Automatic annotation (TrEMBL):
The lineage of its organism: Bacteria, Bacillati, Actinomycetota, Actinomycetes, Micromonosporales. PROSITE patterns: FAD_FR (PS51384). GO terms for molecular function: oxidoreductase activity. Residues 15-122 form the FAD-binding FR-type domain. Gene3D superfamilies: Nucleotide-binding domain of ferredoxin-NADP reductase (FNR) module (3.40.50.80), Translation factors (2.40.30.10). This is FAD-binding FR-type domain-containing protein.
Length: 234
Protein backbone atom coordinates (compact mmCIF):
# COMPACT_ATOMS: atom_id res chain seq x y z
CA UNK A 1 0.00 0.00 0.00
CA UNK A 2 2.56 2.63 -1.07
CA UNK A 3 -0.10 5.31 -1.54
CA UNK A 4 -3.36 5.42 0.40
CA UNK A 5 -5.81 8.05 1.64
CA UNK A 6 -4.71 9.69 4.88
CA UNK A 7 -7.65 8.08 6.72
CA UNK A 8 -6.50 4.56 5.72
CA UNK A 9 -2.99 5.42 6.88
CA UNK A 10 -4.31 6.62 10.24
CA UNK A 11 -6.38 3.42 10.65
CA UNK A 12 -3.34 1.25 9.88
CA UNK A 13 -1.39 3.25 12.42
CA UNK A 14 -4.09 2.69 15.05
CA UNK A 15 -3.95 -1.10 14.64
CA UNK A 16 -0.30 -1.71 13.81
CA UNK A 17 1.49 1.38 15.05
CA UNK A 18 4.42 0.96 17.47
CA UNK A 19 5.76 4.10 19.13
CA UNK A 20 9.44 4.53 18.33
CA UNK A 21 12.25 6.96 19.14
CA UNK A 22 15.50 7.25 17.24
CA UNK A 23 18.53 6.45 19.40
CA UNK A 24 21.16 6.73 16.67
CA UNK A 25 21.27 7.54 12.95
CA UNK A 26 24.69 6.95 11.42
CA UNK A 27 26.00 6.88 7.88
CA UNK A 28 28.04 3.64 7.85
CA UNK A 29 29.15 4.02 4.21
CA UNK A 30 28.30 6.42 1.40
CA UNK A 31 24.51 6.08 0.77
CA UNK A 32 23.94 3.70 3.72
CA UNK A 33 22.15 4.87 6.84
CA UNK A 34 21.87 2.72 9.93
CA UNK A 35 19.13 3.76 12.35
CA UNK A 36 18.68 2.40 15.83
CA UNK A 37 15.21 2.75 17.35
CA UNK A 38 13.81 2.29 20.78
CA UNK A 39 10.50 0.76 19.63
CA UNK A 40 7.51 -0.76 21.35
CA UNK A 41 7.52 -4.45 20.26
CA UNK A 42 4.67 -5.85 18.14
CA UNK A 43 2.77 -9.06 18.97
CA UNK A 44 5.31 -11.91 19.17
CA UNK A 45 8.22 -9.46 19.61
CA UNK A 46 10.76 -8.03 17.16
CA UNK A 47 12.72 -10.46 15.02
CA UNK A 48 15.66 -9.88 12.64
CA UNK A 49 14.09 -9.66 9.18
CA UNK A 50 10.84 -8.16 10.53
CA UNK A 51 9.13 -5.97 7.94
CA UNK A 52 8.05 -2.53 9.09
CA UNK A 53 6.13 0.17 7.31
CA UNK A 54 6.51 3.87 7.92
CA UNK A 55 4.13 6.65 6.99
CA UNK A 56 6.70 8.67 5.07
CA UNK A 57 3.97 11.27 4.45
CA UNK A 58 0.29 11.34 5.42
CA UNK A 59 -0.57 9.40 2.26
CA UNK A 60 2.59 7.45 1.42
CA UNK A 61 3.85 4.34 3.17
CA UNK A 62 7.30 2.86 2.63
CA UNK A 63 8.68 -0.49 3.81
CA UNK A 64 11.95 -1.25 5.59
CA UNK A 65 13.36 -4.26 7.42
CA UNK A 66 14.72 -4.84 10.90
CA UNK A 67 18.35 -5.94 10.56
CA UNK A 68 19.16 -6.62 14.20
CA UNK A 69 17.26 -6.86 17.45
CA UNK A 70 19.51 -5.52 20.21
CA UNK A 71 16.96 -5.92 23.01
CA UNK A 72 13.20 -6.55 23.27
CA UNK A 73 12.57 -2.88 22.46
CA UNK A 74 15.74 -1.90 20.55
CA UNK A 75 16.11 -2.58 16.83
CA UNK A 76 18.25 -1.42 13.93
CA UNK A 77 17.27 -0.81 10.32
CA UNK A 78 19.73 -0.41 7.45
CA UNK A 79 18.63 1.74 4.53
CA UNK A 80 20.20 2.74 1.26
CA UNK A 81 19.66 6.40 0.43
CA UNK A 82 18.85 7.15 -3.19
CA UNK A 83 17.03 10.06 -4.79
CA UNK A 84 14.58 12.20 -2.87
CA UNK A 85 11.42 10.06 -2.68
CA UNK A 86 9.26 10.25 0.46
CA UNK A 87 11.07 7.30 2.07
CA UNK A 88 14.52 8.80 1.48
CA UNK A 89 13.37 12.17 2.84
CA UNK A 90 11.82 10.54 5.92
CA UNK A 91 15.10 8.71 6.62
CA UNK A 92 17.25 11.78 6.13
CA UNK A 93 15.22 13.72 8.67
CA UNK A 94 15.75 11.17 11.46
CA UNK A 95 17.89 12.45 14.33
CA UNK A 96 18.56 11.04 17.81
CA UNK A 97 15.39 11.81 19.77
CA UNK A 98 13.03 11.92 16.75
CA UNK A 99 9.71 10.37 17.72
CA UNK A 100 7.96 8.33 15.05
CA UNK A 101 5.67 5.36 14.48
CA UNK A 102 6.64 2.02 12.94
CA UNK A 103 3.82 -0.16 11.62
CA UNK A 104 4.45 -3.83 12.26
CA UNK A 105 2.44 -7.00 12.74
CA UNK A 106 3.59 -10.41 13.87
CA UNK A 107 6.82 -11.44 12.10
CA UNK A 108 6.42 -13.72 9.07
CA UNK A 109 9.87 -15.14 8.20
CA UNK A 110 10.90 -15.48 4.57
CA UNK A 111 10.70 -19.09 3.44
CA UNK A 112 14.18 -20.05 2.24
CA UNK A 113 14.78 -23.65 1.18
CA UNK A 114 17.95 -25.76 1.25
CA UNK A 115 21.08 -25.73 3.36
CA UNK A 116 23.69 -24.64 0.78
CA UNK A 117 22.25 -21.26 0.07
CA UNK A 118 23.00 -18.34 -2.16
CA UNK A 119 21.56 -15.00 -0.98
CA UNK A 120 21.51 -12.17 -3.52
CA UNK A 121 20.35 -8.58 -3.39
CA UNK A 122 21.21 -4.92 -3.77
CA UNK A 123 21.77 -2.22 -1.16
CA UNK A 124 18.08 -2.07 -0.25
CA UNK A 125 18.29 -5.74 0.74
CA UNK A 126 21.57 -5.73 2.68
CA UNK A 127 19.82 -5.49 6.07
CA UNK A 128 17.50 -8.40 5.25
CA UNK A 129 20.28 -10.51 3.75
CA UNK A 130 22.35 -9.95 6.88
CA UNK A 131 19.40 -10.91 9.10
CA UNK A 132 18.86 -14.14 7.11
CA UNK A 133 22.58 -14.98 6.86
CA UNK A 134 23.19 -14.36 10.56
CA UNK A 135 20.52 -16.93 11.45
CA UNK A 136 21.84 -19.55 9.00
CA UNK A 137 24.29 -22.03 10.59
CA UNK A 138 25.58 -23.17 7.16
CA UNK A 139 27.45 -19.96 6.21
CA UNK A 140 25.55 -19.08 3.03
CA UNK A 141 27.13 -17.26 0.10
CA UNK A 142 25.95 -13.63 0.24
CA UNK A 143 26.25 -11.43 -2.83
CA UNK A 144 25.35 -7.74 -2.72
CA UNK A 145 25.42 -5.15 -5.49
CA UNK A 146 26.08 -1.72 -3.98
CA UNK A 147 27.01 1.79 -5.16
CA UNK A 148 30.69 1.68 -6.12
CA UNK A 149 31.81 4.34 -3.62
CA UNK A 150 30.34 2.30 -0.74
CA UNK A 151 31.91 -1.05 -1.58
CA UNK A 152 35.21 -0.71 0.35
CA UNK A 153 33.52 0.30 3.61
CA UNK A 154 30.86 -2.38 3.28
CA UNK A 155 33.56 -5.04 2.68
CA UNK A 156 35.36 -3.89 5.80
CA UNK A 157 32.20 -4.15 7.86
CA UNK A 158 30.99 -7.49 6.40
CA UNK A 159 34.14 -9.31 5.23
CA UNK A 160 32.24 -12.59 4.71
CA UNK A 161 29.91 -11.08 2.11
CA UNK A 162 30.83 -10.45 -1.49
CA UNK A 163 30.14 -6.87 -2.61
CA UNK A 164 30.03 -5.95 -6.29
CA UNK A 165 30.11 -2.36 -7.54
CA UNK A 166 26.87 -1.42 -9.28
CA UNK A 167 27.01 0.21 -12.70
CA UNK A 168 25.37 3.64 -12.76
CA UNK A 169 21.90 3.41 -14.35
CA UNK A 170 22.06 -0.36 -14.89
CA UNK A 171 20.82 -2.04 -11.69
CA UNK A 172 21.51 -5.74 -11.49
CA UNK A 173 24.06 -5.76 -14.33
CA UNK A 174 27.11 -6.75 -12.26
CA UNK A 175 25.24 -9.47 -10.41
CA UNK A 176 23.98 -10.84 -13.71
CA UNK A 177 27.58 -10.96 -15.07
CA UNK A 178 28.77 -12.64 -11.87
CA UNK A 179 25.95 -15.21 -12.13
CA UNK A 180 26.64 -15.95 -15.82
CA UNK A 181 30.35 -16.39 -15.11
CA UNK A 182 29.78 -18.55 -12.01
CA UNK A 183 27.33 -20.75 -13.89
CA UNK A 184 29.79 -21.09 -16.80
CA UNK A 185 32.55 -22.14 -14.41
CA UNK A 186 30.20 -24.56 -12.62
CA UNK A 187 30.88 -22.79 -9.32
CA UNK A 188 27.26 -22.90 -8.19
CA UNK A 189 26.84 -26.66 -8.39
CA UNK A 190 25.42 -27.94 -5.12
CA UNK A 191 23.52 -24.76 -4.26
CA UNK A 192 20.07 -25.95 -3.17
CA UNK A 193 18.32 -22.76 -2.05
CA UNK A 194 18.42 -19.19 -3.35
CA UNK A 195 17.01 -15.94 -2.02
CA UNK A 196 16.69 -13.03 -4.46
CA UNK A 197 15.80 -9.60 -3.06
CA UNK A 198 15.81 -6.00 -4.23
CA UNK A 199 15.26 -4.63 -7.75
CA UNK A 200 12.24 -6.39 -9.32
CA UNK A 201 13.45 -6.54 -12.92
CA UNK A 202 16.90 -7.80 -11.83
CA UNK A 203 15.36 -10.55 -9.71
CA UNK A 204 13.45 -11.78 -12.75
CA UNK A 205 16.67 -12.00 -14.83
CA UNK A 206 18.56 -13.71 -11.99
CA UNK A 207 15.85 -16.34 -11.59
CA UNK A 208 15.74 -16.97 -15.33
CA UNK A 209 19.54 -17.42 -15.38
CA UNK A 210 19.49 -19.95 -12.53
CA UNK A 211 16.48 -21.92 -13.77
CA UNK A 212 17.56 -21.69 -17.42
CA UNK A 213 20.96 -23.19 -16.58
CA UNK A 214 19.16 -26.14 -15.01
CA UNK A 215 20.78 -25.44 -11.65
CA UNK A 216 17.62 -25.17 -9.59
CA UNK A 217 13.93 -25.70 -9.69
CA UNK A 218 11.80 -22.53 -9.41
CA UNK A 219 10.53 -23.77 -6.02
CA UNK A 220 14.06 -23.59 -4.61
CA UNK A 221 14.20 -19.86 -5.36
CA UNK A 222 12.54 -17.36 -3.05
CA UNK A 223 12.01 -13.86 -4.42
CA UNK A 224 10.88 -10.60 -2.82
CA UNK A 225 11.00 -7.41 -4.89
CA UNK A 226 11.80 -4.30 -2.85
CA UNK A 227 11.65 -1.69 -5.60
CA UNK A 228 11.10 -1.54 -9.35
CA UNK A 229 12.18 0.71 -12.19
CA UNK A 230 9.22 2.91 -13.10
CA UNK A 231 7.40 2.48 -9.77
CA UNK A 232 7.25 4.31 -6.49
CA UNK A 233 7.00 2.32 -3.26
CA UNK A 234 6.17 -1.40 -3.39
C1 LIG B 1 9.21 -5.67 2.27
C2 LIG B 1 10.21 -4.58 1.93
C3 LIG B 1 11.30 -4.36 2.75
C4 LIG B 1 12.25 -3.36 2.45
N1 LIG B 1 13.31 -3.17 3.27
C5 LIG B 1 14.24 -2.22 2.97
C6 LIG B 1 15.36 -1.97 3.83
O1 LIG B 1 15.51 -2.59 4.91
N2 LIG B 1 16.26 -1.02 3.46
C7 LIG B 1 16.11 -0.30 2.30
O2 LIG B 1 16.96 0.56 2.01
N3 LIG B 1 15.04 -0.48 1.48
C8 LIG B 1 14.12 -1.42 1.80
N4 LIG B 1 13.03 -1.61 0.98
C9 LIG B 1 12.96 -0.83 -0.24
C10 LIG B 1 12.31 0.56 -0.06
O3 LIG B 1 11.03 0.43 0.52
C11 LIG B 1 12.20 1.18 -1.46
O4 LIG B 1 13.49 1.47 -1.96
C12 LIG B 1 11.31 2.41 -1.51
O5 LIG B 1 10.90 2.58 -2.84
C13 LIG B 1 12.00 3.66 -1.03
O6 LIG B 1 11.07 4.71 -1.08
P1 LIG B 1 11.40 6.18 -1.61
O7 LIG B 1 10.21 7.01 -1.22
O8 LIG B 1 12.76 6.60 -1.15
O9 LIG B 1 11.46 6.05 -3.18
P2 LIG B 1 10.19 5.90 -4.16
O10 LIG B 1 9.35 7.13 -4.13
O11 LIG B 1 9.50 4.60 -3.84
O12 LIG B 1 10.91 5.76 -5.55
C14 LIG B 1 11.45 6.89 -6.24
C15 LIG B 1 12.31 6.39 -7.38
O13 LIG B 1 13.45 5.73 -6.87
C16 LIG B 1 13.57 4.41 -7.38
N5 LIG B 1 14.05 3.57 -6.29
C17 LIG B 1 13.33 3.09 -5.23
N6 LIG B 1 14.13 2.38 -4.41
C18 LIG B 1 15.37 2.42 -4.95
C19 LIG B 1 16.62 1.88 -4.55
N7 LIG B 1 16.77 1.14 -3.44
N8 LIG B 1 17.70 2.11 -5.33
C20 LIG B 1 17.58 2.86 -6.47
N9 LIG B 1 16.41 3.40 -6.89
C21 LIG B 1 15.33 3.18 -6.15
C22 LIG B 1 12.16 4.06 -7.87
O14 LIG B 1 12.20 3.15 -8.94
C23 LIG B 1 11.60 5.38 -8.29
O15 LIG B 1 12.00 5.67 -9.60
C24 LIG B 1 12.08 -2.58 1.28
C25 LIG B 1 10.97 -2.79 0.45
C26 LIG B 1 10.04 -3.78 0.76
C27 LIG B 1 8.87 -4.01 -0.17
Amino acid sequence: MPTAPALVGRLAETFLGRRARVLRAAQIAPHFLEVEFHAQPPAGGWRPGHEVQVRATATEGRRYTVRTVEAADRITVLAVLHGDGPGARWLQNLRPGTETTLLAGRHVPLRVTGTRRLLIGDGSALGTLDAVASADPHAPTVLVEAPSDAVDQLRERWPRYRFLAALADDPGATIRSWLDESIRREELTGIDGVLLLGHAQSIQCQREALVGAGLLDRRAITTRPYWATGKVGL
